[in-house]
Each structure stands twice: as C-alpha cells, then as structure tokens.
Design goal:
By secondary structure, the chain is an alpha+beta fold. It has a single domain (about 15-140), classed as 60s Ribosomal Protein L30, Chain: A (2-Layer Sandwich). Helices cover about 20% and strands about 25% of the residues. The chain is built from 2 helices and 6 strands. Strands 1-6-4-5 form a 4-stranded mixed β-sheet, with helices on one face. Helix 1 (about 40-55) packs across helix 2. The longest helix has 17 residues, at about 40-55. The protein is globular, with a radius of gyration of 16 Å.
Length: about 140
C-alpha cells in the first residue's frame, strides 16, 4: 500500500476508496408515531461505506479508547462549466457541505473501523474536482504524539 500523498509521514494507516457520488448526512426523519428514523438514502450510502471498509481492510482496526486520526478526500466529477478557461475551478464550492460528508462517513465507520466516532480526535477533510467519476477516499490511523 502506498503512503497517502496528503500526509506522507503516517506510519500505519488504513486506506479505503469508495466509488460513489459524494453525499451529506441527511437529517433524521420523524415518523407518524413520533419516532425518529434514518432516511433510506443515508442508510444506503452508509452501508456502501461499511462494505468498502470490510472488503478493503477486513477488521475493526481501533479498539475503544484508542484516539484516531481521520482524513477524508471527497472527489467530485468536474462539471463541464468548470473545465475551461477562466471558468476552470479546482475546488468545488457546492453542496454537500464538508461537515455533512464527514459526519456521514464517520458514522458509517462506527463499530466497523472503530468502536465509536467519538474516538476521532483529529480530522482533515478535502473537497476537490477530478476528471474522472466521483469517489470518496479516506485514511485512518492511531493518533500518536
């Protein structure tokens, strides 16, 4: 496995790529009987992320109480309007917001990569355009000082 280009000094890390259109975490809905539920599309995307972790890493990497560094790279397909001349843009300033994307991925990794996302003590999130189909890639590692 190659070192992540954003943080080349990471010692041991887990890298996962998910081919998907970036989405943010949707707000919980409220049913007719007053109970709350997670929207279907959010469950579908979280399942896709969980499946990717299990296929590419295969195990829970961080037991409870281990601090984790979380690095998320969100890659949007560059729209035609952002490809040429003065309109060329490197970074997407569009929805979904970085924090909603991060929350979706971090929540999807609960009990799969780590015991709970409260173990994430440092996070870096990057949004950018790419000239290929959209995907999300993330790294995790144990926080050491």
């Amino acid at each position: 496995m190659t070192q992540p280009y954003l943080f080349p000094d990471l010692a041991e890390f887990h890298l996962v790529r998910v081919d998907m259109t970036p989405r943010g975490k949707e707000r919980a809905g409220r049913g007719k009987n007053g109970t709350f539920y997670t929207p279907r599309q959010t469950v579908k995307v979280e399942t896709q992320i969980t499946f990717a972790w299990k296929n590419q890493v295969g195990r829970q990497a961080y037991p409870a109480h281990v601090p984790v560094v979380f690095i998320l790279e969100v890659n949007f397909e560059r729209p035609l309007s952002a490809r040429k001349g003065k309109a060329f843009r490197k970074y997407p300033t569009v929805k979904p917001d970085w924090d909603n994307i991060g929350k979706l991925v971090a929540d999807a990794l609960n009990t799969v990569a780590y015991h709970d996302d409260c173990q994430v003590v440092e996070a870096h999130i990057y949004k950018r355009y790419v000239n290929e189909p959209p995907f999300v890639r993330f790294w995790t590692e144990e926080k050491t000082d």
